[in-house]
Structures are given as structure tokens and as C-alpha cells.
TrEMBL record:
<feature type="signal peptide">
    <location>
        <begin position="1"/>
        <end position="41"/>
    </location>
</feature>
<protein>
    <recommendedName>
        <fullName>Alpha-amylase</fullName>
    </recommendedName>
</protein>
<keyword id="KW-0732">Signal</keyword>
Length: 605
């Protein structure tokens, strides 16, 4: 079958009357043929004219809508790209179209002549395909294959309205109204707000705030996806509440049973309790009051798992506490802070003069404590009891010292350091496609910020990472256009490490057909994409259904996902006319390039 399934909020229609009623939206999709391709639908034979009337709620358009006498009626054959349009009669709403009748077709009303927009915001578009009964559910709408006939009534729905009251959204930069698929319909920066001229269906509202108010992402409130239901001719009222989608947290900080006043409580979002060093960008903080209480209000954090850490004075800190926060729930978590240790680092005069960096890492490579400079070196406060690694790095002299230190609760440990061990160099040559100016990064999870070094390869591919503190589990990452290579190593001394980037393919071509005919992508842009390996390359499909990926843009000899996508074809509506993100795995060819062959698009039922 050819391209199928318009997204329509469909009601029941009988005989030749086709009506879009209120309700959820439906998806127009098509998919890549992954196995044997079904036979194409038989062409429509002998059709020369399609006639009917455009109505609103069963009343001819001119009588139902003051000031709107006519709309465009469109006939479209997706497989051939053939399109015919006419205007409905301004006095009766009647229309007549001479059509070729050479392939399965759709009829549409209240669309722009190019098929990518709607004419009147007061009414929804209507699309008609194969006969059948449609309930309020997600389903496909295949093109009509019967001979075009007279008396095809195109009944339009009136638009709806969404009113958003202020609620408790006191501070936000932007409030957006989007379709379920994420397409922006309208936006506002103040409340209350009214969104009018909306096609019946389902939408999503989302508020965005300044970056210093909410961290990652900056969305303190939103409805569920598709949670705003717009009915034909109706008004939907929304009263936002930040507790709808965000959590709250409160508790008391104590030490030895007594409240701790003025303590800093920091809440960091983490990926999981087992990867305690893996902190996402997203946080909040509060300072305890005279009774040791702290609180994070609704709208300051998103649902998820967080690490709570308390700091107070030079030696008081809590152990890390992990908590899962849920939308609409105020979680109470009391924290017992404990006395920690302190480390005094005495440096040589040269190390002090060069302002050597001082870092203390726990067994998982997480930096601990808070450092301050002193006349003799540095002091690190609030270090948890246990065995840690102290690293002093003199970047001027390119030397370092690393040693184990034992911290005791309530005690200050003193360490004399003289960083004399030379740091090391990692160098080599990057070869292969796009090696010139490739990015080279060295990362060590066990050395914190000390384990990060970055540079770029020269025009001939040579690179050098100097002043590297040795350590285990280091990762060298080389990134170039369309390629990436990683090398793990235990770095003990200066070494050379050459990296060859993978070869890229030659020209990759292919063709799309629909109903056995070249698919021209009408009426929207169609793209072939190759996904995989953290990269996506796109190639536009031309009017003959052909696409081509240039030579040197895709890594050769790897498995990639080939997909076909389109832009949304009708703007300002909560449904889309598009190809399904169907895919199949392909092996990218070598330097000589290759042809992926002919891909037949079929209806996904």
C-alpha cells in the first residue's frame, strides 16, 4: 500500500459524509518494507470528477460561519504527487474537482493549496481516505481506492480554546503549548493567557524558568504529554500547580541530637545510588534555620534521585544521604551530621609560590572536603574519616606528589609535601580520515579534575598531552569528523600512543518508491537518515525518490540504522502527516561506496 494514516481526531462517519469530531488524534504514518513488499493498491480507474459540499456541524459552510464563505478543497495522490485544488462555493459550500484518478487518493478541506497549512484558524482541517468507521482511538487512515464519486460531504470541526490561569507559577520565562509530537503551537510570557484557534485534539503545556531558578532542565511545571484535551468549539481551562510535576523536600539537621543552625544543605541530582560520583547537572541548596530546619519548595527540583550533603564549619559534615523524590510528594528526610576530620598540607616554598593544586580523593575518585590556602600551604576541612589519596600538583615545575593519608574523626592530620616526581607526557600521531585537527582528550575517573587533559592534533596529525599526573584507568578519546576512537590504559610513565581513525565510506545511494512509483516527497521534505555510534547523518530525498550520502561522511563497515522521516506537513494542528520512523539495520559500505537499493514504502496497519 502507499503512504497511509493521517493523524486525525476522528469520529464516526457514514456513507459519503466524512466528519472529524472531537477526541484523541490519529497518526499518518508509513514504514520501510523490512520483508517482502505487499502488492501495490490497484490504481483508481475512470475517475474524472469529485463533487460534494463543505459543512460545519452539518450546516453548509456559508450558513454556519459568518464572514467565511469558502475554503480550499484538495485532492492528493501520495504515490504520484498529483494534487488538484479548488475553492468551495461561497454561497452553497459546494465544490467540484476534475481529477486524474490514477492512484489511491485523499480529499482535504480547509488546507492551504500547498497542503502544508490551514486557511482558517476558526476551523480544523478535514482529511478523508478509505471508507470505514472510526472511533475515538489512535488508528490509521489509508487512502481511498474506490472510484471518485459525487456527494462527498466534508464536515469541519470548529476550533477550540485553552485558557491558562496563573495558579502558583509566579516566576517563569516562557509557557509553551505543543502538540503531542512536540511541535510548538503558541507561547506566552505572562498569565493568565488564552490560546485560541486550536484544532480539537491533545496538547501539552510546559513552563520554563530562568536558569538560576531551576536547574536541569528548566521546567518547573508541565502537564502530562497530551494532557490538555481540546474539544470542538469548547474551552479548556488549566490552573497550573508546581506540585503537579515537581517534588518538595524538607527535614532537620542535627548533631549529637541537637539542631545545627546555619548549616549548608546541598542537594545534587545523581544517576543512581551505586554511582555516587556520577552527579548530573541539577541541584538546589538551603541553609538551616535556628532550629536546624531546611526546605526545598515545589518547582525547585525535578523528580529523580538526589544526594544530600550537609556542611557546617571546619569539621562538621554529614555522610552522603540518597533520596528519591516524586512529583507531588513532600519528602521528609532528617539528617544526622557528624564530626569529620581535617587535613593540613605543608608545602615547600617553591610549591607555594607556584600555587600548586591540592586535591584529596576518596576510594571512588570523588573529591572531598573544602580547601583554603594558608601561609604554609593549604587546609582541607570536612574530610570524612578513612583512607584517602592526596595529590599535590605543581603545573609550573611539572611535578607532583601523591600519597595515602588517614583521616580521623575530630582530628587534624598534618602532611609535609614536596612535589618532585615528574609528570608524564602522552603523545602520538592520529592517522586516517579527518585526522588533522582531531580533538584528543585524556580522562581519568580516579584523579578527578586532575585527570582531564585536552588538545588538538596538528595539521599532520601529531598531538602531545603534557604535564599528566600518572594513574590507573585512564581513557584517551580521539574525536574527528564522523569518527571516534577510545583507548583505555594504565598510565605509569611517558609513552607514545598512535591512533588510527576508521575508514569512511564512499558515496552511499538509495531510492524510495511508493506503490511501485518513485516517491517525490510531496508535499513535505523527506529525509533518509543513518543513525548509530552517537551520530546521525541525513540526506534529502529528491523529486525522483533518490537520496545520496556524500563520500567521507560516514564510517565504513559498521552497522547503522537506516530510517526515513519527513517534516510535519500541516502546521498548527495536533496531528501530523509524516512517514513513520521505521528502520532497518544496514552495513555501511567501504571506500568504494555502495547502493542500498530500492526501498518500498508501505502502510503500517
Amino acid at each position: 500500500m502507499p503512504i497511509g494514516a493521517f493523524l486525525v481526531p476522528a469520529g464516526r462517519y457514514k456513507g459519503r459524509m466524512h466528519r472529524i469530531a472531537r477526541g484523541p488524534v490519529l497518526v499518518l504514518t508509513a514504514a520501510l518494507a523490512l520483508v517482502a513488499v505487499p502488492a501495490a493498491a490497484e490504481p483508481v480507474a475512470g475517475a474524472t470528477e469529485v463533487t460534494g459540499v463543505v459543512t460545519v456541524d452539518g450546516v453548509p459552510l456559508p450558513d454556519a460561519m459568518d464572514g467565511l464563505g469558502s475554503v480550499t478543497v484538495m485532492y492528493w495522490e501520495p504515490s504520484t504527487g498529483e494534487r488538484r485544488t479548488t475553492e468551495s462555493d461561497p454561497d452553497t459550500g459546494a465544490y467540484a474537482l476534475d481529477v486524474p484518478g490514477t492512484a489511491p487518493y485523499y480529499l482535504a478541506a480547509n488546507v492551504t493549496p500547498d497542503g502544508v497549512g490551514r486557511e482558517s484558524d476558526d476551523l480544523a482541517p478535514v482529511f478523508v481516505g478509505a471508507d470505514g468507521t472510526h472511533d475515538y482511538a489512535w488508528q490509521t487512515l489509508a487512502p481511498a481506492t474506490d472510484a471518485a464519486a459525487t456527494d462527498v460531504t466534508l464536515d469541519l470541526d470548529r476550533s477550540g480554546t485553552v485558557v491558562v490561569k496563573a495558579g502558583d507559577l509566579h516566576q517563569f520565562d516562557d509557557l509553551t503549548l505543543r502538540t503531542i509530537g512536540g511541535r510548538l503551537i503558541d507561547r506566552t510570557s505572562s498569565l493568565p493567557a488564552t490560546f485560541s484557534g486550536l484544532v480539537p485534539g491533545r496538547y501539552t503545556l510546559q513552563a520554563w524558568t530562568p536558569w538560576d531558578t531551576i536547574q536541569h532542565p528548566a521546567a518547573p511545571w508541565q502537564t502530562a504529554s497530551g494532557g490538555v484535551v481540546v474539544e470542538a468549539g469548547g474551552t479548556t481551562t488549566i490552573v497550573p500547580a508546581r506540585s503537579d510535576t515537581t517534588p518538595a523536600l524538607r527535614g532537620t539537621v542535627t548533631k549529637g541530637g541537637a539542631p545545627v543552625a546555619g548549616a549548608m544543605v546541598r542537594i545534587d541530582r545523581v544517576t543512581s545510588a551505586t554511582h555516587v560520583g556520577d552527579v548530573e547537572w541539577g541541584y538546589s541548596w538551603d541553609k538551616t534555620d535556628s532550629r536546624g530546619r531546611y526546605a526545598v519548595d515545589y518547582g525547585d527540583l525535578l523528580p529523580g534521585r538526589y544526594r544530600i550533603r550537609v556542611e557546617s564549619g571546619q569539621t562538621t559534615e554529614s555522610s552522603d544521604v540518597y533520596v528519591s523524590l516524586r512529583a507531588g510528594v513532600t519528602t521528609v528526610r532528617d539528617i544526622a551530621a557528624a564530626q569529620q576530620g581535617r587535613l593540613k598540607v605543608v608545602m615547600t616554598a617553591a610549591a607555594r609560590k607556584h600555587q600548586s593544586s591540592v586535591t584529596i580523593l576518596d576510594s571512588k575518585g570523588v573529591q572531598r572536603g573544602g580547601m583554603t590556602w594558608t601561609s604554609t600551604g593549604a587546609a582541607i576541612d570536612r574530610v570524612p574519616p578513612g583512607t584517602h589519596t592526596l595529590i599535590v600538583h605543581d603545573s609550573v615545575a611539572r611535578t607532583y606528589e601523591a600519597r595515602r593519608v588517614v583521616i580521623t574523626r575530630g582530628k587534624t592530620a598534618t602532611v609535609n609535601v614536596n612535589p618532585r616526581k615528574p609528570t608524564v607526557t602522552v603523545s602520538g600521531r592520529v592517522t586516517g580520515p579527518n585526522a588533522a585537527r582531531a580533538g584528543v582528550t585524556l580522562v581519568s575517573n580516579r584523579l578527578g579534575e586532575l585527570g582531564h587533559r585536552m588538545t588538538r592534533a596538528s595539521s599532520t596529525g601529531w598531538y602531545s598531552l603534557r604535564d599528566v599526573v600518572p594513574g590507573a584507568d585512564q581513557l584517551l578519546v580521539v574525536k574527528a569528523k564522523h569518527a571516534e576512537v577510545q583507548r583505555e590504559m594504565d598510565l605509569v610513565s611517558t609513552r607514545r600512543l598512535d591512533v588510527r581513525l576508521p575508514a569512511t565510506s564512499g558515496v552511499i545511494t538509495g531510492r524510495l518508491t511508493l506503490g511501485g512509483l518513485p516517491y517525490d516527497g510531496s508535499p513535505g521534505d523527506v529525509w533518509a537518515t543513518l543513525d548509530g555510534g552517537g551520530r546521525t547523518e541525513r540526506a534529502r530525498v529528491n523529486a525522483r525518490g533518490q537520496f545520496s550520502f556524500p563520500a567521507g561522511t560516514i564510517t565504513a563497515g559498521v552497522d547503522r540504522t537506516l530510517a526515513v522521516t519527513t517534516t510535519d506537513l500541516v502546521s498548527g494542528v495536533p496531528y501530523a502527516v509524516r512517514l513513520l520512523l521505521a528502520d532497518r539495520t544496514v552495513r555501511t559500505p567501504g571506500a568504494a561506496g555502495g547502493d542500498l537499493g530500492t526501498i518500498e514504502l508501505v502502510v503500517r496497519r
